[in-house]
Amino acid sequence: MIKWSFRTRILISFLILVTVALALLGSYLLWFFYRQNLEWQTAHLVTNAKITEQLLEEYMNGPREKAGIDEKIKELSGKIDLRITILDITGTVLADSWEHPGTMENHLERTEIRAALTGDYGTAIRYSATTGQNMLYAALPIKRGNELIGIVRTASTLAPVEADFSQIRSTLLAAIFAAALLTILLSIRLARKYTAPIEEITAAAKQIADGDLSRRIHIRTGDELELLAHTINQLTSNLDDKINETSAEAKKLSLILTHMDNAVILLDHYGQVTGANKKAREIFNIADAMIGRHSLEVIGNSLLNQTVQAVIAENHTKTIELKTNIQGSQRIFQVFFAPITNSGQPAAGVLSVFHDITALQELHERQIDFVANASHELGTPLTAIRGFAETLLDGALETPELRHKFVSIIHTEAERMNRLLKALLQLAKLDSQEYRRQIQLEPIALQPLLQTVAQELSVQAGLQQQEIIIDPASDAEAVALANYDWLKQVMVNLVENAVKYTPANGKIMLKCQSTAAGVLVEVRDTGIGIPAKDLPFIFDRFYRVDRSRTRTAGGSGLGLALVKFIIEMLGGAIQVESQVNLGTTFTFRLPPAG
Length: 594
Hints:
The protein has helices spanning about 5-55, 65, 70-80, 110-120, 160-210, 225-260, 280-285, 295-300, 300-315, 360-395, 400-430, 435-440, 445-455, 460-465, 485-500, 545-555, 560-570; strands at about 85, 95, 120-130, 135-145, 145-155, 265-270, 275, 320-325, 330-340, 350-355, 440-445, 465-470, 480, 505-515, 520-525, 575-580, 585-590. It is of the alpha+beta class. It has four domains: about 5-165, PAS domain (Beta-Lactamase); about 260-350, PAS domain (Beta-Lactamase), CATH 3.30.450.20; about 360-430, Orthogonal Bundle (Helix Hairpins); about 440-590, Heat Shock Protein 90 (2-Layer Sandwich). Strand 8 and strand 9 (about 330-340) form a beta hairpin. It is rod-shaped, with a radius of gyration of 65 Å. The chain starts with 5 loop residues before the first helix and ends with a strand. Residues about 545-555 have low confidence and may be disordered. This is histidine kinase. It is an enzyme of class 2 (transferase). It is a multi-pass membrane protein.
């Protein structure tokens, strides 16, 4: 099926309309001109017939007179240039200006004759075999008083009328053709004028539909098309604004989802994963190929699927605690579920947000253990102090030897409890985020710090016949970015720890070294060492390798935990190597200054 353009349809419509109008007008004019000529010719024939009747009235009175009619009408016909025929009432031709009456047939049945016999006159148009032309006939009755005595008929050829008609027709056809040609040109121009704005609007609409929202329509027609163009421009502008707003919001949401610490997973009402943010893909190892698979296959937890179905069925939010195994380690998540609905429709899916609370749970468990251990560690010296105090009150004060022994024990336990409380306060202080933000980091020259610590603890080491030595290979230029007070605390704790667990005549060596990975500090002793089974736990709070041995040495079980905490707070890391009865080496790394 042919599809015409709007311009073509307008052009064809104009052509059809004008052609029909011109055809109707031409037909009417042709009919009018022909009718007018025919009526004029008829009137001319009737008038001449009447004149002829009056002139021939005397020739119709008797046979003698009738004999002269033929000559008379031939004479008269020559003057008026018409054919004249005289008939009696029976239709017999009495005379004819063109033919011999005796050779002519009876004319009674001719249309114009019968009309004249019954009325005022009769007319007819008929092809004449005699002349070979169309003829116009007009017949009038010849009366004597009221008596009908004959018929006079005048006739003329229609050739002039037909010639005029043909000329008029040719002129009209030429005029119609010229008008049609002019109409075509005018129609093309009008079609262009009226369709150009529509074509511009159509082209602009296609560009807008293809996404070019910067397109604007500039039409100044002053009519409905200009109003339509203005409306489309306004609609496009509003749509562009809305899309920009939506795009901006989508970008914000995408940035939030991409960079948020929580995993976000979208699931449909079948429990299939339909989307996941970057964090979710990292935690659960979700590849693109896994999108569209069931949550049991992706997450591997039936509780998740059960909760999704419950949220969809109840159309209500839910929060659960989900435990799952990821790459061999247990992770705990607090998962928030919300139904995805639209205008009161049933939930089409579920938004799930996974908050990793594994560390929080571990911290909570450590806090519980810490409180229990702290209570136990504080309870032991308090019990001893109370026991020996009661013994003294019960009479031991009277015995000098017992009094001195018990008071010394009470003093030792009080000192141990004081060290324990001091360590607890330091840990509590370092646990404070606000305090850690106030700690100022600065370049620290490590060699002078090692010398200071060695000098301050040399007396304590000397009491044990021990020697604290700075390794000759130590880097005198090593500088770390740290806090002096807390770094000194680390060194003091490590050296004191070495002094406690190194036998007499032992050595404690300190060393610092600059490397590509950072600044390394080493504390090595020739002490009793640490069993391999205890090495993974020595940095845990209140952990002791041998509680009886540690308590005898005055340890609180918090020194190494405090060391590790400070090192990590300063951006470093610590490790330990040890062999029983050969010694222990603590090595920690700090970021370099500059």
